[in-house]
């Protein structure tokens, strides 16, 4: 029974001052003897209530594991409007686990696991070379003039706080493995542990200490000899250093919004910024980031001699259009390979195509719904030289060459063949140089291939050939010759 301060005061006075029995006090005040017994000796006070903290017996480890699995599934799917509510988890427990407890019990458990109850954290400290925290973030850049959303792979050493940031088009397994590999190379060694969340690129199922690692990541970690660790659900504090790095890199490296040609250019910029960060001082830590990185470098595991192949590999047959298909998109290869098999290695941002161990083509990797083809003009030049009539409608030509240059080719005496020759000059000398020559030739002059080549060869700087006027001649002794052939010598 809950009593107010006035009743409590009367209980204490009757018991302590008047010496009344508990039965008499209860009868006089009209309250239960248990209430009098609780407050008469002053052991308890009515304004302080003990929190009810008994663990429900119905919340077995199996039930808690099921709740955690539901929440982990929500996080991996990342669909905000289709996530488990406490009621839905309760319904599933009843149906799938024959749960006999109440919905309120499940609600309280979900609330605790989600972290809505205030938490306390223990400050962490790491030894040199002990751990690396990794995470993903998003940012916006202009790629070749088009606004694009990209993914930032972020890594931060726990002792020195040295950072590594690399941009990828997509958060897939290839990018995840390549990002770590490049981070190890950037830091000059391998930390003993990596700390990451429970994303599907790394974890098959489970979470935290219960996580089952993906096969490729297991092979990768075995090759580089580090131990992968995974955070608990909704526990960003367990990798707080890298969580802060995601926002830091966006604000400091990508403002104003970069305008770059491709991701290779952006990653060169990010690498420079990460090197500059080595001069940074971390509050509460001695020395610069670079000094601390140098200090922990000797604790790293050495990089293996063999570099792990982080690509997704496939074998494809070169079709009659001299292209191979990968992930619903096509990439051209030299026409001499038509009908043969090629090996496609897909990295985070790049596609490399091999034939008999040699790289025959490389491209920026295409992501999206599919149906796009990347052409390299050089692959089709032997075909165009044999079939010049197709030059103005050939897709590889239209994708690689500006329209105004093709229209200029139509003005040549033998338009088809001369345009193919013009394309060859573009490959040999660069399209920009050929366009520069086009702009130099007056519009009133009919262009020819020989005229274009004359500009490529360049004019003679001085038309006068210098000839020496004084020629020195050495004296030769011919007496032995005269004697042999009995030549009379004039006195």
UniProtKB/TrEMBL annotation:
It comes from the Bacteria. CDD domains: HTH_XRE (cd00093). InterPro entries: Cro/C1-type_HTH, Homeodomain-like_sf, Integrase_cat-core, IstA-like_C. SUPFAM superfamilies: Homeodomain-like (SSF46689). Transmembrane segments: none annotated. This is Transposase NmoT. Keywords: Plasmid. Residues 124-298 form the Integrase catalytic domain. Pfam families: Mu-transpos_C_2. GO terms for biological process: DNA integration. It comes from Peptoclostridium acidaminophilum DSM 3953.
């Amino acid at each position: 029974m809950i009593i107010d301060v006035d009743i409590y005061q009367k209980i204490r006075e009757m018991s302590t001052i008047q010496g009344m029995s508990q039965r008499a006090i209860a009868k006089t005040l009209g309250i239960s003897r248990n209430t009098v017994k609780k407050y008469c000796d002053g052991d308890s006070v009515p304004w302080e209530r003990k929190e009810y903290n008994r663990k429900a017996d119905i919340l077995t480890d199996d039930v808690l594991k099921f709740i955690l699995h539901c929440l982990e599934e929500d996080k991996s799917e990342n669909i905000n409007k289709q996530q488990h509510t406490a009621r839905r988890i309760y319904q599933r427990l009843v149906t799938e686990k024959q749960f006999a407890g109440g919905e309120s019990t499940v609600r309280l458990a979900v609330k605790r696991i989600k972290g809505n109850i205030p938490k306390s954290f223990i400050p962490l400290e790491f030894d040199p070379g002990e751990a690396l925290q990794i995470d993903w973030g998003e940012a916006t850049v202009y790629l070749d003039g088009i606004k694009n959303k990209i993914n930032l792979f972020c890594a931060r050493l726990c002792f020195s706080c040295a950072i590594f940031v690399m941009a990828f088009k997509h958060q897939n397994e290839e990018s995840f493995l390549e990002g770590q590999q490049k981070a190890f190379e950037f830091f000059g060694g391998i930390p003993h542990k990596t700390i990451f969340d429970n994303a599907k690129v790394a974890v098959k199922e489970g979470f935290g200490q219960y996580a089952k690692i993906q096969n490729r990541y297991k092979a990768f970690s075995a090759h580089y000899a580090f131990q992968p660790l995974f955070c608990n659900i909704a526990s960003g504090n367990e990798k707080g250093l890298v969580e802060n790095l995601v926002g830091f890199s966006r604000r400091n490296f990508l403002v104003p919004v970069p305008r770059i040609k491709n991701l290779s250019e952006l990653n060169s910029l990010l690498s420079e910024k990460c090197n500059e960060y080595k001069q940074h001082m971390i509050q509460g830590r001695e020395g610069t980031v670079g000094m601390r990185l140098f200090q922990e470098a000797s604790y790293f595991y050495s990089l293996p001699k063999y570099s792990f192949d982080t690509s997704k590999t496939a074998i494809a047959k070169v079709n009659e259009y001299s292209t191979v298909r990968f992930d619903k998109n096509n990439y051209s290869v030299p026409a001499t390979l038509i009908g043969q098999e090629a090996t496609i290695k897909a990295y985070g941002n790049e596609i490399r195509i091999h034939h008999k161990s040699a790289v025959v083509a490389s491209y920026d990797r295409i992501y999206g719904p599919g149906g796009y083809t990347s052409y390299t003009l050089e692959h089709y030049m032997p075909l165009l030289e044999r079939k010049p009539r197709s030059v103005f409608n050939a897709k590889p030509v239209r994708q690689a060459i500006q329209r105004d240059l093709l229209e200029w080719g139509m003005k040549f005496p033998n338009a088809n063949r001369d345009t193919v020759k013009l394309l060859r000059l573009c490959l040999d000398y660069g399209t920009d140089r050929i366009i520069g020559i086009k702009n130099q030739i007056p519009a009133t002059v009919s262009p020819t291939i020989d005229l274009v080549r004359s500009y490529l060869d360049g004019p003679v700087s001085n038309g006068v050939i210098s000839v020496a006027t004084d020629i020195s001649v050495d004296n030769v002794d011919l007496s032995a010759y005269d004697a042999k052939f009995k030549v009379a010598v004039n006195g």
